[in-house]
Amino acid sequence: MTDITIHLIARLVPQAGKEVALAETILALVPQVLSEAGCLAYAAHESLDAPGVIVIVEAWADQAALDTHAALLTSSGAAARISALLAQPLSLERLRAL
Predict the structure, then answer these.
(1) What is the Cα–Cα distance from 38 to 81, expressed in whole angstroms?
(2) Whole-angstrom Cα distance, residue 43 to residue 97?
(3) What topology is assigned to 9-95 in CATH?
(4) What's the rounded Cα separation, in Å, for the pair 68 and 13?
(5) Which pLDDT band holds residue 97 (cuts at 50, 70, 90)?
(6) Are strands 54-60 and 39-46 parallel, antiparallel or unpaired?
(7) Residues 36, 41, 34: CA angle, nearest 5 degrees
(8) What is the pLDDT of residues 24-49, one digit of tens each?
(9) What SS3 class is residue 83?
(10) Is the separation of the CB atoms in 38 and 62 below 8 Å?
(11) DSSP class of residue 5?
(12) Which of 36, 39, 86, 97 is 20–30 Å from 62 (CA)?
């Protein structure tokens, strides 16, 4: 049987001086995201190699759950709040287990 779990790495590079605001914004979202249907993991980390850069490791039950999550971030205004703090567009890397 094929594993349909979607693993995702999100990399968020803050504008200079916005590092704390970005971290606080992301941390405030974590409990909400973890309660979303289909969310298997959602853990925020700060890069040791690039301080201030936030890397989120996510796992979603399937593409539909990830799509719903993205829609919720947009409709709640969270995506716009995060985007306003970034120095460059959000980087997303979708993964599948080998």
Answers:
(1) 24
(2) 18
(3) Alpha-Beta Plaits (3.30.70)
(4) 24
(5) confident
(6) antiparallel
(7) 30
(8) 999 999 999 999 999 999 999 999 99
(9) helix
(10) yes
(11) P
(12) 86
